[in-house]
Design goal:
39% helix; Ubiquinone biosynthesis O-methyltransferase; alpha/beta; Rossmann fold; binds S-adenosylmethionine; S-adenosyl-L-methionine; 3-demethylubiquinol 3-O-methyltransferase activity; 8 strands; 234 residues
Length: 234
């Protein structure tokens, strides 16, 4: 039996904060603030309405719900039971429909090969022990010709300064200890894992935060946060 590709300390961290997931002033504020940007970018590439979509590492469901709101048929998977409970409860408030499951990407891929038009895996890879295994699972889950989207944090001096020192200690956008530098992933590594999983890179785009205007934007600067659009060949 293969070992579970999960770090119990990471899951515990998200479980402890889970009750604040939908508070836009909480530790999850950055996810609320970046959501319209990433949703628009994903929708622009994959035209979500009517598509079967899987959100891997969905947490409390910020992205999953928003994809349902634009007409996608969304399933969300995560290994934090508390985050999933919060996600399920929030559906009563929002009226959206998402099927939430407590299962790893690898196990779900064994049960549902080539089942989804679109797979999203955002802000999750930097929290798992073996990101290449998660990426390979996402590649197995998507249909031939389908889309897979990732986002994560780059690994360099600038990302260390911005994502850890800046976000966790100076601006206090995130609790100290949210991120572990060694788990950040360079775009070259992410695209290599994708190639190994037979996912073709379509676009790599940066996401930057301006601390003066407090506004996030998409652009060419991939030094800190970035997103990757890939497709499984048809
Ligand atoms: C920073 S949150 C991102 C949530 C969501 N993807 C978003 O961007 O709004 C990271 C999520 O990954 C989940 N996670 C961490 N390790 C995981 C694993 N091995 N399998 C599935 N989910 C995992 C956590 O429980 C948490 O919900």
């Amino acid at each position: 039996m293969s070992t579970l590709n999960a770090d119990p300390a990471e899951l515990q961290k998200f479980s402890e904060l889970a009750h604040r997931w939908w508070d836009p002033a909480s530790e999850f504020r950055p996810l609320h603030e970046i959501n319209p940007l990433r949703l628009g970018w994903i929708d622009g590439k994959a035209a979500l309405a009517g598509k079967k979509v899987l959100d891997v590492g969905c947490g409390g469901g910020i992205l999953a719900e928003s994809m349902s709101a634009v007409g996608a048929d969304v399933t969300g998977i995560d290994l934090s039971e508390k985050a999933l409970s919060v996600a399920r409860l929030h559906l009563f408030e929002s009226g959206h429909k998402v099927d939430y499951r407590l299962v790893s990407a690898e196990a779900f891929a064994d049960e549902n090969p080539a089942a989804f038009d679109v797979v999203t895996c955002m802000e999750m890879l930097e929290h798992v022990p073996d990101p290449a295994s998660t990426i390979a699972a996402c590649a197995r889950l998507v249909k031939p010709g389908g889309h897979v989207f990732f986002s994560t944090l780059n690994r360099n001096l600038k990302s260390y300064v911005f994502a850890i020192i800046g976000a966790e200690y100076v601006l206090k956008l995130l609790p100290a200890g949210t991120h572990e530098y060694a788990k950040f992933i360079k775009p070259s590594e992410l695209t290599r894992y994708c190639r190994q999983a037979r996912l073709d890179t379509q676009e790599l785009i940066g996401m930057s935060y301006n601390p003066l205007t407090k506004v996030y934007s998409l652009g060419r600067d991939t030094d800190v946060n970035y997103l990757l659009h890939t497709r499984r060949p048809g």
